[in-house]
Amino acid sequence: QVELVESGGGLVQAGGSLRLSCAASGRTFRSPVMGWFRQAPGKEREFVAAISRSGTSTDYADSVKGRFTISRDNAKNTVYLQMNSMKPEDTAVYYCAADHVGRRPDRAYEYGDWGQGTQVTVSS
Q1: How many angstroms separate the CA atoms of 57 and 103, rounded?
Q2: DSSP string spanning the chain?
Q3: Over the stretch 2-38, which tens digit does the pLDDT of each residue have?
Q4: What's the CA gap between 113 and 3, in Å, rounded?
Q5: Which pLDDT tens digit goes with each residue over 42-92?
Q6: 8: exposed, middle or buried (C-beta count within 10 Å: 0-12, 13-18, 19+)?
C-alpha cells in the first residue's frame, strides 16, 4: 500500500562518501516531511536529518551537521542523504521515514511509515 525503497548503503572507508536514496510510492502521506534515522548496535534509533517539501527547510543532528546533506527530488518522490567525511561512528542501519504527523520531525514516533533499513558500515 505504501512503500519506501531504500538503496545506497554499503561499506566505505573513513573519510569517504555514500549517498542513500529513498523512493516513496503508494498512498499520499499526511505530511510531505521526510526524515532519516539510524540505529547502531546496542543503541537507540536516533535522528539524522529531516527535510520539508520544498527542500528549503532542513534539520540535522549535531553529530552529522556539516558532513551530511539531505535533499529531495519531488518529481521522483525520492529523498537523499549525502554522507561525506564519514566516520566509523556513522556505522548503523539507516532508515527512511515518512508520513510525519506532529511538530517535531526529529522524533521517530511522529512518523508513520518506515523503510526496511540499509546497512552503512564505515571502516579504515
Answers
A1: 14
A2: -EEEEEE--EEEETT--EEEEEEEEESPPS---EEEEEE-TTS--EEEEEE-SSSS-EEE-TTTTTTEEEEEEGGGTEEEEEE-S--GGG-EEEEEEEEE-SS-TT-GGGEEEE---EEEEEE-
A3: 789 999 999 999 999 999 999 998 766 667 899 999 9
A4: 8
A5: 999 999 999 998 889 999 999 999 999 999 998 888 999 999 999 999 999
A6: middle
